[in-house]
């Protein structure tokens, strides 16, 4: 009892002292000499650095907790941002189906959901050098059930500033999403009558550069924008804000642009930020995962500029190549698993109709797409000529949209016999039905179609696959309609067969405590390859119809396949043969392998070389390997990398008893590129 009373007295005294002297205690002992310096005064901590054009930048943080956290961000002594405060909101719910569940809509849980706005009362600031960067971290951030710090990261030669809330919860089964922003003082925008005349700039969903002046009112106003970035004129320059381009989004079946940006302008204050939504009017909106004790990284990027807001906005877009996957010499891009319902629309509109998805895919940098019609459209279960005619139109329509610059590959996502959902692609038009009537044969010649297969068992499916040279892979393994798969079919002859390519990879589910995306698919691949399989991943998107205003890029990844040129429609099997060889990599677009190699050195080492191009500064590389029982990771710190680099890396990892190995590279925004596995027993 005496100890408790004493503790309460100390806490009370500390609270009174903090109220009387709200000073944030700073520690800069971790800062080393380098391109970014940190200085402290009685009530301020300042960061100084230069950009690529040798302009001198500074960020001044107040150490008076009663004042706005960011006193000023300035260039060459001229203030751009003043009196700024980080803003965070979140909603939380309960995960009921496990961390990999997709059909697990938190608002539908019995306990409902909760919404929170931050409470931020910092008492301590710690600055340290990490590689060539400097981090300044403030404690005292509370966001409902989350608690932790706010960190600002500065990069040499760049005006990019990363604002990240580092928050944890001890509550089990937490699902959540977050909004992030920055509110700033802007007295120059004040007009008579309490009005604000703040100048915002963004690209509207159709790609038109749009300037907007804030209307009267205190509300946060939602913006549907392209490229996820918006800019505002501030002080002597401007400021753009944007989220991590892929990591910010949790998986959805649709790419509709819900309006992921917001702004406010009211009584001398301007706010900019990004936001998520609790639902899209479906029950298929799984939110993000926050396992207990993990540190969730809720990031917003700030990009101040000494120039007008159009300059800041254009600079922001360079980090995603303006939402375009760049061409890499010697590689062809490939994107499987789309459900555009193309065939049934083409049958209605006529053969001259060009589907809107073609231009969208070409614009984003897709050379070849493998669509999967008859998934909630058409008549995949029909046992008459209706099914056969739809297939005939499907093959004809895909051929019609293929040309020397774009290849459209027909395939289907089936859910019969083999277990879970699985994609199947034939090297040429093949007619098949997913069941048969009593007395019908497994295979017969039919006028107008040639051989027609009618499958009724897994063995018959696989006989058809082998006879026609088809390829199969498990779509969205261990989640959605493939929950429990491929684990339940590992002992089948067909899964062990070489024409069962492997599994799909997608950033699903989301866990912002991890530096990489897509942990579910990685773990699935590593688990099965530790059992002696030689399986690969296909980067997939798994979404339905597209429109030109959609937010596609944030949900997209592409396969880069090592091929000399794009094959024509009659030779599209070359795409799938390349997947089978594993001669390529998967990328989110910002990190690319211009070339790469993984080679064994004896029996206990793997040597990796990679020419890596990146937009955001890199975070880490990993050589991942398995010994037939366990998966191991050797992490390489890349915190000395710069933004917009093209650099050759050379790594060697000790891998005793290794059976397979692969390479991953990730940047500070969670974007990455990774190779397919190599195997020691395959002669690679």
Please describe what this structure looks like.
With 684 residues, the protein is mainly beta. The protein has two domains: 22-320, Beta-galactosidase, Chain A, domain 5, CATH 2.70.98; 331-589, Metal-dependent hydrolases (TIM Barrel, Alpha-Beta Barrel). Helix content is 14%, strand content 41%. The protein has nine helices and 44 strands. The strands form six sheets. Strands 25, 26, 27, 28, 32, 33, 34, 35, 36, 39, 40, 42, 43 and 44 form a 14-stranded mixed beta sheet that branches. Helix 8 links the parallel strand 33 (500-505) and strand 34 (536-539). The longest helix has 19 residues, at 2-20. It is globular. The N and C termini lie far apart (69 Å).
Question: Any descriptors?
Answer:
disordered N terminus; 14% helix; Beta-galactosidase, Chain A, domain 5; 2 domains; eleven-stranded mixed sheet; TIM Barrel; 44 strands; 14-stranded mixed sheet; globular; 684 residues; mainly beta
- The domain count comes to 2
Q: Please give the CATH class of the largest domain.
A: Mainly Beta
Overall shape: it is globular
Mean of residue pLDDT? 95
Let me know the number of strands. Answer: 44
Q: What fraction of the residues are assigned to beta strands by DSSP?
A: 35-45%
Q: Level of helix content?
A: 10-25%
The CATH topology label of the largest domain is Beta-galactosidase, Chain A, domain 5
CATH architecture field of the largest domain: Distorted Sandwich
What is the CA-CA span between the terminal residues?
Answer: 69 Å
Radius of gyration: 27 Å
Unreliable stretches: 1-19
Biggest sheet, in brief? 14 strands, mixed
Number of helical runs? Answer: 9
Computed structural class: mainly beta
């Amino acid at each position: 009892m005496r100890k408790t009373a004493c503790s309460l007295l100390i806490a009370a005294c500390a609270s009174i002292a903090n109220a009387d002297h709200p000073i944030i205690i700073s520690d800069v002992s971790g800062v080393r000499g380098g391109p970014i310096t940190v200085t402290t005064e009685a009530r301020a901590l300042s960061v100084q650095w230069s950009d690529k054009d040798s302009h001198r930048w500074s960020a001044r943080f107040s150490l008076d907790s009663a004042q706005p956290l960011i006193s000023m961000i300035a260039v060459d002594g001229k203030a751009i941002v003043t009196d700024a405060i980080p803003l965070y909101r979140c909603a939380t719910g309960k995960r009921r189906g496990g961390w990999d569940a997709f059909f697990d809509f938190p608002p539908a849980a019995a306990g409902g959901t909760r919404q929170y706005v931050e409470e931020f009362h910092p008492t301590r600031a710690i600055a340290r050098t990490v590689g060539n960067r400097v981090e300044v971290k403030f404690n005292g951030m509370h966001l409902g059930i989350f608690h932790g710090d706010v960190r600002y990261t500065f990069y040499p030669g760049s005006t990019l500033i990363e604002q990240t809330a580092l928050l944890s919860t001890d509550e089990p089964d937490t699902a959540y999403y977050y909004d992030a922003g920055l509110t700033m003082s802007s007295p120059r925008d004040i007009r008579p009558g309490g009005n604000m005349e703040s100048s915002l700039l963004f690209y509207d969903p159709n790609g038109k550069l749009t300037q907007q002046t804030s209307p009267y009112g205190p509300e946060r106003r939602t913006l549907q924008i392209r490229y996820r970035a918006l800019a505002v004129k501030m002080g002597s320059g401007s400021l753009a804000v944007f989220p991590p381009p892929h990591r910010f989004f949790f998986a959805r079946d649709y790419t509709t642009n819900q309006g992921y940006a917001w702004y406010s302008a009211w009584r001398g204050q301007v706010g900019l930020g990004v936001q998520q939504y609790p639902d899209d009017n479906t029950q298929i909106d799984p939110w993000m995962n926050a396992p207990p004790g993990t540190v969730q990284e809720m990031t917003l990027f700030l990009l101040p500029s000494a120039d007008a807001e159009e300059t800041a906005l254009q600079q922001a877009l360079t980090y995603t190549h303006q939402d375009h996957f760049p061409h890499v010499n010697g590689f062809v891009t490939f994107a499987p698993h789309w459900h555009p319902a193309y065939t049934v629309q083409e049958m209605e509109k006529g053969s001259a109709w060009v589907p809107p998805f073609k231009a969208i895919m070409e614009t984003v940098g897709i050379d070849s797409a493998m669509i999967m019609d008859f998934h909630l459209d058409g008549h995949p279960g029909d046992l008459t000529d209706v099914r056969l005619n739809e297939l005939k139109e499907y093959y004809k329509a895909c051929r019609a949209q293929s040309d020397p610059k774009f290849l459209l590959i027909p395939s289907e996502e089936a859910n019969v016999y083999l277990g879970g959902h699985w994609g199947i692609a034939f090297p040429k038009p093949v007619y098949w039905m997913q069941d048969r009537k009593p007395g019908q044969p497994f295979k017969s010649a039919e006028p107008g179609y040639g051989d027609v297969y009618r499958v009724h068992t897994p063995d018959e499916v696989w006989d058809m696959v082998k006879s026609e040279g088809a390829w199969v892979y498990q779509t969205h393994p261990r989640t959605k309609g493939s929950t429990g798969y491929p684990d339940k079919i590992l002992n089948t002859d067909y899964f062990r067969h070489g024409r069962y390519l492997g599994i799909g990879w997608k950033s699903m589910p989301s866990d912002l405590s991890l530096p990489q995306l897509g942990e579910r698919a990685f773990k699935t691949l590593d688990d099965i390859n530790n059992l002696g399989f030689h399986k690969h991943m296909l980067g997939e998107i798994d979404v339905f119809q597209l429109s030109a205003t959609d937010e596609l890029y944030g949900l997209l990844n592409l396969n880069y396949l090592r091929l000399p040129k794009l094959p024509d429609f009659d030779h599209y099997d070359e795409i799938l043969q390349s997947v089978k060889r594993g001669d390529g990599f998967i990328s989110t677009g910002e990190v690319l392998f211009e070339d790469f190699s993984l080679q064994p050195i004896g029996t206990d080492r793997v040597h990796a070389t990679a020419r890596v191009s990146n937009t955001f500064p890199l975070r880490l590389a990993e050589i991942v390997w398995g010994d037939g029982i366990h998966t191991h990771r050797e992490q390489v710190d890349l915190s000395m990398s710069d933004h917009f680099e093209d650099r050759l890396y050379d790594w060697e990892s000790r891998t005793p008893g290794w059976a397979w190995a692969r390479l991953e590279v990730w940047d500070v925004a969670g974007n990455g590129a990774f190779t397919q596995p190599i195997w020691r027993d395959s002669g690679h």
